[in-house]
Specification:
Its EC number is 6.6.1.2. InterPro entries: ATPase_dyneun-rel_AAA, CbbQ/NirQ/NorQ/GpvN, CobS_N_dom, P-loop_NTPase. GO terms for molecular function: ATP binding; ATP hydrolysis activity; cobaltochelatase activity. It comes from Neptunomonas japonica JAMM 1380. Helix content is 41%, strand content 16%. The protein contains 13 helices and 11 strands. α8 (219-229) crosses α9 and α8 (219-229) crosses α10 (267-280). Strands 4-7-10-3-11 form a 5-stranded parallel beta sheet, covered by helices on one side. A two-stranded antiparallel ribbon has the order 1-2. It folds into 2 domains: 11-213, P-loop containing nucleotide triphosphate hydrolases (Rossmann fold, 3-Layer(aba) Sandwich); 219-331. It has 332 residues and is of the alpha/beta class. The radius of gyration is 23 Å and the shape is globular. The protein has helices at residues 15-19, 48-60, 74-85, 100-104, 124-129, 145-154, 202-205, 219-229, 236-257, 267-280, 283-290, 300-311, 319-331, and strands spanning 11-14, 26-29, 64-67, 89-93, 105-112, 115-122, 134-138, 161-163, 168-170, 177-182, 210-213. β8 and β9 (168-170) form a beta hairpin. The termini are far apart.
């Protein structure tokens, strides 16, 4: 990983111009991009409340957790704020394979002057602490207990981190920032939707200065995102089609909230559906392949009814023949 050239923010960014929020606020930013700064997604739609919470994290060194259902763009939201501030950003997914050694570091054997020697290789946490970097812990509620206690140390106000193996105390860089995303709010997996999530130690939850919730976007904003991702839909016919797709997605979300079905369509799934329509040339075929086949068999008739209501079209069983016909015509 390369070192960062600029050590401190050396400019400011207008929140109104960069994020479209009606405020005169300006926030610190870097004038130059680093290799670790995320790429700007010009199609991204910012949620004003969540954006202001994340900006507070960057400008005032607040520990910010973004909570919400899957596919709402929680991690991407933080990355896109960082992208517009030119703030270096590193994202870690706390799946079951991430261990304490991955975060803290471990002894490794290297060759030096033709001899094998043991040398400590620091993990991502001490590396990030020394730099003006935003560290994002993804799927925070899925972290293993030993990993979570490592993170708890840097959630303190001073955030000092002790490398016991090296007898070294690391003082965080003044521009180090810490964020997390979570599907739950630390109370565990009560719905059965997010297997592998854990109850978070409430003493640790208390150390997060700001907890904000990112819900699904309004229809108009979701339409803009899909049309930006799939430009062929950026016309009157495409607008009608996309609105019907989002109407189906909203029905699944409302039914999920009511406990009628166990799977919902996230914006990510709707985008996949739109992209698959370009491949298969049929919304029904693409719907089956993008979402319906992921659903519980007992729930599929209800979800098929959602499609029928919004598209005035039955989901026929001959979809496989249609798909194979489209693919063969593409090849010829």
């Amino acid at each position: 990983m390369s070192d960062i050239k600029i050590d401190q923010p050396d400019t400011t960014v207008s929140v109104r111009e960069a994020f479209g929020i009606d405020t005169d606020l300006r926030v610190p930013a870097f004038s130059e991009r680093d290799d670790h700064v995320p790429e700007i997604d010009t199609a991204y739609q910012f949620n004003p409340e969540v954006t202001l919470a994340i900006l507070a994290g960057f400008s005032r060194d607040r520990r910010v957790m973004v909570q919400g259902l899957h596919g709402t763009g929680k991690s991407t939201h933080i990355e896109q704020v960082a992208a517009r501030l030119n703030w270096p950003c590193v994202r870690i997914n706390l799946d079951g394979h991430i261990s304490r050694l991955d975060l803290v570091g471990k002894d490794t054997i290297i060759l030096r002057d033709g001899k094998q020697v043991t040398e400590f290789q620091e993990g991502i946490v001490p590396w990030a602490l020394r730099r003006p970097t935003a560290l994002i812990f993804d799927e925070f509620d899925a972290g293993r207990p030993d990993v979570m206690f490592v993170i708890q140390r840097i959630l303190e106000r001073d955030g000092k981190f002790t490398l016991l193996d090296q007898n070294e105390v690391i003082h965080p860089h003044k521009q180090f920032r810490l964020f997390a995303t979570s599907n739950t709010i630390g109370l565990g997996n009560s719905t059965g939707l997010y297997h592998g999530t854990q109850m978070i130690n409430q003493a640790q939850m208390d150390r997060w200065n700001i907890v904000t919730t990112l819900n699904y976007l309004p229809t108009d904003d979701e339409v803009k995102i899909i049309q930006a991702r799939v430009p062929n839909f950026d016309n009157d016919a495409g607008l009608t089609l996309v609105k019907s797709m989002i109407a189906v997605a909203d029905m699944t979300r409302n039914s999920f909230a009511a406990g009628d079905i166990s799977t919902l369509m996230s914006p990510r799934t709707v985008i996949s559906w739109a992209e698959n329509i370009e491949i298969f040339r049929d919304p029904a075929v693409a719907f089956r392949l993008s979402f319906l086949n992921k659903c519980d068999e007992a729930e599929r008739p209800m979800i098929a009814e959602f499609f029928q209501r919004c598209f005035d079209q039955e989901l026929t069983e001959s979809w496989a023949h249609k798909a194979s016909g489209v693919m063969s015509s593409e090849q010829h």
